[in-house]
Amino acid sequence: MLKYKLGTLFLLMIGIFSFSFASAQDNEFPLLGKVIYIDPGHGGSDPGAMYKEIKEAELNLQISEKLQEKLLSLGAIVYMTRYGDYDLSVTNTINRKRSDLSRRGNIINRSDCDLFLSIHLNAEETGIWRGAEVYYDDINPENEKIAKIMQEQLKEHLGSKRNLKKTDVLYLQKRVERPGILIEAGFLSNSSDRYLLKQETYQNKITTAITEGVLEYMKQKSSE
Predict the structure, then answer these.
(1) Phi, psi dihedrals of residue 82, rounded to the nearest 5°
(2) Which of 7, 8, 74, 198 lies at a 20 to 30 A Cα distance from 45?
(3) Is residue 145 a contact partner of residue 117, using CB atoms and an 8 Å limit?
(4) What are the strands of the beta sheet with 180-187, ordered from one edge?
């Protein structure tokens, strides 16, 4: 009888320890095992939007690197389509842009990731528009949900007044079947946004907003 009681107590202690360990992991690493693909827009021969010497591609990469660090710290498995100033186009291809986007889409689809995030900056001729906004294609039914969650976080953390936009003309978003969105983190054509986008502190605010959006989406996804 004593041996039986000791055995039961031992199993109970293991159960309590395992539950506590799992709970601690859930709290400290809420994205544990989630695979996220970050796509820093443009690169190489394609600088994206420009203002004097400021290149969208460089800022996209800076923001993406900070975002990768945050997501990794929460337990996610994070990949990026590029880690430097280059594109993914096939050598000597006629249409470098199309080749670049096609290859980005292919590697994201093959990854079977839980989420992909394309990081871009906006631009328009008047210089008046400002603020961060989200674009989504309904090729995946999850995309609208992700976009709504993310736009709310951009409004909360960055004070953006802009609204999310549905699109069916963005080549990469039409190709990628995995859940995901495109985030325009601000307008390089706007002087206020342009100043902020160059600041590390503001880039950190952007990545915090995106990270909170990822956490909220994964939380809702797991409760379904």
Answers:
(1) -145, 150
(2) 198
(3) no
(4) 77-80, 35-40, 115-122, 180-187, 133-136, 165-166
> Please, are residues 136 and 164 in contact by the beta-carbon 8 Å criterion?
yes
Prediction pTM value: 0.88
Q: What is the separation, in whole angstroms, between the first and last Cα of the chain?
A: 45
Mean pLDDT score, 206-220: 98
Q: Which two tokens stand for residue 94?
A: 């006629």
C-alpha closest to that of 177 among 120, 106, 117: 106
Instruction: Give the total residue count for the chain.
Output: 224
Mean pLDDT, the chain, rounded, equals 90
Place of tokens 């503001």: 202
Dihedral in degrees, nearest 10, Cα atoms 122, 125, 129, 134 = -30
* Pair type for strands 133-136 and 180-187: antiparallel
